[in-house]
Specification:
This protein has a domain of about 50 residues. Helices cover about 70% and strands about 0% of the residues. This is VAMP5 protein. Belongs to the synaptobrevin family. InterPro entries: Synaptobrevin-like, V_SNARE_CC, Vamp5, VAMP5_R-SNARE.
Amino acid sequence: SPHCPHIVPSCPQAGLVRCQREAEEVAELMRQNVVRVLEREGHLEQLQSRAQDLRQVSEVFTRTTQMVTRHQSRRHRRWHLVALGLSLLFLLILGLALVLALARSSPGTVTSTVPTPQGVPSTPPELQRPP
């Protein structure tokens, strides 16, 4: 028989038994292979489920990092504006102090002393007392 090469022409019964045994071994191997394939399929489904969970977690992480980045950016911008405001206030106070200091040191009217010639009284005649 071409399907069972182990059949001995002298004893067809022994060859048939051997062929059946080999067929059962092959069938058992096939059953084991099917079980392994089903186990692998289960593992693949678990991996797909894990991959889906990781994808969702990574999306949440991405959104969270973007939100934190925006928050930090606003916070830095706020501190920059506070620093700018304080600098402008300092410059305004410094400018006012400078203006006040200049106003005190140089009054609006100019006074000068004029030397009087010799022999002329230093006080005007209207203010002099009669002797």
